[in-house]
Amino acid sequence: MKYDAVIIGAGMSGLAAGIRLAMFDKRVVVLERHYVWGGLNSFYQFKGRQFDVGLHAMTNYVPRGAKGKPLTRLLKQLRLRHEQLDLHEQSFSLISFPGAKLRFDNDFENLRGEVRRAFPREIDGFDALTREIAAFNELDLDAPQVSAREIVRKHIKEPLLEDMLFCPLMFYGSAREHDMDFDQFVVMFKSIYMEGFARPQAGVRHVLSLLTNRYRELGGELRLRSGVKRILTRENEAVGVELESGEIIEADHVLSSAGLVETNKLVNGDRGMGVPPVPGHRPEADATGKLSFTETISVLDALPKTDATIIFFSNRDRFEYRCPEELCDVDSGVICMPQNFRLPKPIDALVRITNIANYAKWAALKRGEGDSSVRVPANWVSGVRSQVSGNGNGAVPDTRNPIPDTSQADAYTQAKQNCYEHSVNSVIGRHLPDFRPRVQLVDMFTPRTIRHFTGHEGGAVYGSPKKVRTGETGIKGLTIIGTDQGFLGIVGAALSGISMANRWVLKEQVSEPVV
Amino acid sequence: MNDAEIKQAIIDIISDIAPDEDTSNLKPDVRLREQMDLDSMDFLDIVMELRKRYGVNVPDTDYMQLATLDSCVNYLRGKLVARAARVS
To answer: Which residues of chain A are within 8 Å of residue B56 when distances are taken between CB atoms?
Structure first.
């Protein structure tokens, strides 16, 4: 049996592409290496509790009926009603640097007011930047790539403000160190500052249920534990895939969300890049992304005393978005407290802290057979309060203390435990009041976890710095979708799958005569 | 199909594509894009649904014929008649 299309990966882009193809009666199968769908935005159970993997927030939030926005476009393409997503808005978020704080929410005017308050001399430049962003067509897939820093510096003279504006956008979507491509910057700026954050009551599970149910209703096939070993080509045209099991699946189209470098390897083995350079792209010595992350999750028995939903912070004067020398850089990060979305029903109080991490360092650590879980440090339960001043201006705790009770564990588990504690300690007193005595349960993922579950080389969450906006690979019938096509976040990834399925599979059908 | 049925067929397609839109009071002589949030991706969907449901082929060059409900009816009347004749 031959399929019209095989889709590699049951993440947001793969499922959305699958829905579009199944909707128009294509024979389509989505292949997922793991036993659960979702990819970068998946979910799991740990010690009887439900967790989301990647989701802090859905970006791109706009209310029902907002015209011409990515979220409304997505809803129409999947034929969903706005209310089916069950979205609830953030309270507010903070960009917190030693020199200034900016607060923002889902009303762009409030961010503008904050910029005027904190940087009065920059407001005209900020307005000019906003106008340039609003006028930019980020959907033009053939636009040349330019540095976002260069364009922002035309308008913003104060380096602190420049760094503060970049900080959330980079953390939520930049595959490039220090800088972003301007089109990516515009996509992120609009999705975070001009649109906003929201979350379904039930988190990412709810979005994934909507997608998988819709896909199956339409007759789409989803195969789990079906890793792809090779993409099969004949005379520079994709003809199907070979699974790890040796099974061959024939198809006219292959849509791959595996990533650019990863898809290349599926075609060419290790023989190198088969994808020709895309015109207008800056040359890239190594297309593998350098940015990976650790994330620590602390479950609390009571809400920490803050109403912020998300805090983007740097403890340094200048923001450094780059692969750190050490295992993880705890001096910048993102703190997410999902209970601070305006949810109708209360959920577990969590503090999630994301820090940039060095994949190679983590990959080199010895890992034994034992449990690698992170534990609540015994000394946190009592006596911590007296060490730390919680007023935000006082003494900063020593974050370099070795952890005594993991000496028998393997190097990987010890490193996790160390990073967990450093990560939490680095935000206490600066960005959050001391919540350590309230911690009931902890979990953590590392670049190795990301590598395992996404298949991305280097545990690169946002994939390669080289994006292929048209999806083209130089091989007929093989299309890149998802992260490395260049649209990010849940809404962006899903739109990536949709637009590529439309452009390369469905439009072809429209131009054929009706028989 | 008579004109009323063709018009209803288009409205049904739009209601399926854009479930958040109110399609009960669409003006037949005003451009659909002015009355609703429809972009080129949505027009592709209308075309694909016409093909799927009624076997009608709308080439790229004829998309502007779908601008209003009235123009849809005018354009599709001939196509649907031709189709019916071919089938019978």
So the answer is: 514
